[in-house]
Design brief:
The chain contains 27 helices and 20 strands. The protein has 721 residues and is α+β, with helices and mostly antiparallel strands. It has two domains: 337 residues, Thrombin, subunit H, CATH 2.40.10.120; 276 residues, no CATH class. It starts with 7 loop residues before the first helix and ends with a strand. Bound molecules: arginine and aspartic acid (ASP). Arginine binds next to α10 and α12.
Length: 721
């Protein structure tokens, strides 16, 4: 999830104001003292840089974790209790759900620690420290090296650094480039492996609004869930064991009951995944004009087909709910991103900047020879990359992420290299792995839907890409089937074993070495193989070549920007490392004549209530609490606040991040951005970009009043004034 760019900051800096434009930036905790803390304090932060990040004393960084693979979470009690998003814990909640215990629908609350549920594979990672290791990584690098020599040398140093810092496996370590390889940082993590589910609201609260409200404001989603970290007797990481005890954190967040006002200082501390703020105009053009429109079109087709079947049949709706959410999330984000880039005139803004930096480059011979040809090279590289990138997108979207092909891909992975020499136990293990996957796969599979999707995806691929990217089998569509994709599909589904569980069970039960011959004759297996080979021959090499070229161009381009802007503090693009972003509670004007308030209340949930629409079914108990206005100390002037917006610069991965007030207290949990602001991964707009958080008081209200799990609130430290 990583990438690169020119921040709009720069453009504003150049053409509008000499100061860093408000609220943009994802800052490195280690460098706050040097670059940001004064500005933060001027804007209302009352603590010090050391309170946020320190290796000498407990600091906020000790209360923030990487939750699972792609989210953030934070500690909220001295007994290892943590909070993150409902959509981050969704997989775990779903895993524990069955017909008898449908925690997705009904919610789950452990009334004592003994009821908490373990989650094999789920981890909580604490950052021990980060370190600038640029000098060591680049020590042997010189200008005469080729890009691949350079790459190899860097990998070698990175491995040495990571190995040493791991202290024989005690820590997980990773060294990552910042500013496109102009700097390198080491990150050292302690990884806890016994993380148990403590509580989750029903989907009618935690996923309220579903995909309809996703990426949108005004929002009313109670998007939170709670887990607890367990450790061994010495408070160290251990595999799950009933003997483990709740982890004692070095630091946890106190929780503010004071609420938020427009203009209040806010800070989000978490793990943003990937941004590309320093892209050239060529890069923005490729994303917004080549990639996004096609990806949106493909996903729209998927959504239409899924919706058609899901609306007809409640069973299918459940089967495809998660897949639908995945397809719809990026689809909607790309639409918002393209609208935002267009509204900002992003390409033109980048071009203006490029003209300006070019005059600066040309004004000096040294600079001219070092940077003068960069933009031309970018142009050429993107010209070469664009068609391959589009083919890649098509391959990923229409083929690779297609259920039936992804199933065939796993057979290819496990069985392709089985031959006469293979050991019996290796064969058995491959077969049993494949068998183990069948129930889960077919539980969420509906053949008529899959077939229609297949036909549509093949049509899009076939008509969307050049001849050079067409596998031989697709020619049959025209030769044998006279252009009729439905017939082509029919023939394939009749013959393949990949659309029926019984056929696969039969195949696996009778698997022997010679069985691969049968696989190779299977049309889905064959077709996937053709796509795969074609991809390796015609796409992969171009991507690899241009990747190396871009690595060099981006490094130099970033260097040029840093020199050109030497008085400005730049931030490195997000790369799923711990960052601080700060801003303020703020509303916005989404379009002419309309102003959105910075917060929503329970009243809005009742307004959206609609038993007919799945996304808007409000749990009965919540309605009763609303009728009684039974908000306890979590309400504000007779109202229950639900979500709020602020101007923090966040992205995917920031889900579950703590949103913190000027006193360092938790005021909310971040979970989304507004649709009008999703282009912030490429260009941030202070007027339009908002992060969306659940008001922590709503979470406490749900835990206490809705779920009756007051004992969890009692574990926390509440700040009342
Ligand atoms: N848009 C949010 C993010 O990118 C939330 C996604 C999960 N929710 C959903 N309805 N699909 O992660
Ligand atoms: N919803 C995103 C996440 O899951 C956050 C965002 O993109 O703003 O990380």
């Amino acid at each position: 999830m990583i990438k690169k760019t020119i921040s709009i900051t720069l453009i504003f800096l150049l053409f509008v104001s000499p100061y860093l434009r408000a609220d943009e930036g994802m800052w490195i905790p280690l460098l706050l003292k040097k670059y940001n803390i004064k500005d933060m304090q001027a804007k209302g932060f009352k603590l010090t840089a050391e309170d946020i990040y320190s290796i000498n004393k407990a600091s906020m960084k000790d209360a923030v974790i990487i939750f699972g693979r792609g989210c953030t979470g934070e500690l909220i009690s001295d007994q290892g209790l943590l909070i993150t998003n409902h959509h981050c814990g969704f997989g775990q909640i779903q895993n524990h759900s069955s017909l008898e215990h449908d925690y997705l629908t009904d919610g789950f609350w452990a009334m004592s620690k003994s009821e908490e549920l373990s989650n094999p594979g789920l981890t909580a990672k604490f950052l021990e420290r980060m370190e600038d290791v640029t000098d060591q990584v680049l020590a042997n690098i010189n200008d005469n090296m080729s890009e691949s020599e350079r790459y190899a040398e860097i990998q070698k140093q990175v491995r040495l650094i990571d190995l040493k810092a791991s202290e024989n496996g005690k820590f997980e370590t990773v060294t990552k480039p910042l500013f496109y390889g102009n700097e390198y940082y080491l990150f050292v993590y302690k990884v806890y492996k016994d993380v148990r589910l403590v509580g989750a609201p029903p989907s009618g609260i935690g996923k309220f609004g579903g995909d309809t409200d996703n990426w949108m404001w005004p929002r009313h989603t109670g998007d939170f869930s709670m887990f607890r970290i367990y450790a061994d007797k010495n408070n160290e990481p251990a595999e799950y064991s009933p003997e483990n005890v709740p982890y004692k954190p070095k630091k946890f967040f106190p929780i503010s009951l004071k609420g938020v006002k427009k203009g209040d200082f806010t800070m989000v501390f978490g793990y943003p995944g990937s941004t590309e703020e320093y892209l050239t105009s060529y890069g923005v053009k490729m994303i917004s004009e080549v990639e996004n429109p096609q990806r949106i079109k493909i996903r729209q087709a998927k959504i239409d087909i899924m919706t058609k079947y899901m609306e007809k049949d409640a069973g299918v709706r459940i089967q495809y709910a998660d897949k639908y959410a995945g397809v719809s999330n990026s689809w909607k984000k790309w639409i918002g991103e393209n609208r935002g880039l267009k509204r900002l005139n992003a390409i033109q803004k980048k071009q203006v900047f490029e003209k300006d930096i070019t005059s600066w480059m040309n004004a000096n011979e040294v600079r001219k020879s070092k940077y003068g040809s960069l933009l031309d090279s970018y142009k050429k590289t993107y010209e070469e990359l664009s068609p391959a990138q589009l083919a890649y997108d098509y391959f990923i979207e229409t083929i690779y992420r297609n259920d039936i092909f992804s199933l065939a891909a796993s057979y290819r992975r496990y069985l392709d290299n089985i031959n006469e020499q293979s050991k019996k136990e290796d064969i058995e293990s491959a077969v049993s792995r494949l068998k183990a996957g069948l129930d889960g796969y077919f539980k969420d599979y509906y053949k008529p839907l899959d077939k229609e999707l297949f036909a549509e995806m093949i049509t899009l691929y076939h008509t969307g890409l050049d001849k050079k990217y067409q596998p031989p089998m697709l020619q049959e569509i025209n030769t044998k089937y006279k252009g009729d994709v439905a017939k082509f599909t029919e023939a394939i589904y009749k013959k393949t074993i990949f659309a029926d569980k019984e056929k696969l069970v039969d195949f696996l039960d009778n698997y022997k070495i010679g069985s691969n011959k049968k696989l190779e004759k299977d049309p889905i297996y064959q077709l996937y193989g053709e796509f795969f080979n074609l991809f390796q021959q015609n796409v992969q090499p171009v991507l690899e070549k241009t990747d190396l070229e871009l690595a060099k161009l981006n490094r130099l381009w970033m260097q040029a920007i840093m020199e050109f802007e030497k008085d400005k503090v730049l931030y490195p693009d997000a790369n799923f490392t711990l960052r601080v972003t700060y801003g303020q509670v703020d509303d916005y004007f989404p379009y002419d004549g309309v102003k959105y308030l910075h917060y929503t209340t329970l009243k809005g949930i009742m307004e959206k209530d609609n038993p007919e629409i799945y996304d808007y079914r409000v749990p009965q108990k919540l309605k009763e609490l609303y009728e009684k206005k039974d908000y306890g100390e979590y309400g504000e002037n007779g109202e229950m606040h639900v979500c709020f917006t602020a101007s923090n610069h966040t992205t995917g991965g920031n889900s579950g991040s703590p949103i913190i007030n000027g006193e360092g207290q938790l005021i909310g949990v971040n979970f989304d951005r507004n649709w009008e602001g999703t282009m912030s991964d490429i260009m941030y707009d202070p007027d339009m970009c908002r992060n969306i958080s659940i008001d922590i008081r709503y979470a406490l209200f749900i835990i206490d009043k809705f779920a009756g799990a007051k004992h969890l609130v009692d574990e926390m430290t509440l700040i009342r004034n």
